[in-house]
Amino acid sequence: MTSTPSPAAEALLREFEGAWRDDTPVFACCRRSVAVAVAGVDLPATARLAAPGRVRALRAALDRDSPGHLDAHRCCAGHLADLAFDLPGLLAPVPGQ
Questions:
Q1: Backbone φ and ψ of 23, nearest 5°
Q2: d(CA 33, CA 75)
Q3: pLDDT (tens digit, 9 = 90+) per residue, 11-68?
Q4: N or C, fewer C-beta in 10 Å, the chain?
Q5: Contacts made by residues 49-56, CB under 8 angstroms, sequence distance 24+
Q6: pTM here?
């Protein structure tokens, strides 16, 4: 059974719909990695962590699903790091979070 993403998760996933984000290409593997990481963490709790903790939480969520993926996909690792740094600001405007 697939769960419906929360409004916050949907807003985060929209950040990676285009071909580029912050002058960095977004590949299919990057979109999948972001989706898995976003689904694998408690977004409000993760957003309250310091930046290094947010990076670790997102990376750990992806690593549970796809061990070693980030070792081979620097593109995905970069997007998860960017998402971790942007997370508090991206969640702030989402109603109901």
A1: 60, 25
A2: 10
A3: 999 999 999 998 999 999 999 999 999 999 999 999 999 999 999 999 999 999 999 9
A4: N
A5: 51/84, 51/85, 54/84, 54/85, 54/87, 55/80, 55/81, 55/84, 55/85
A6: 0.88
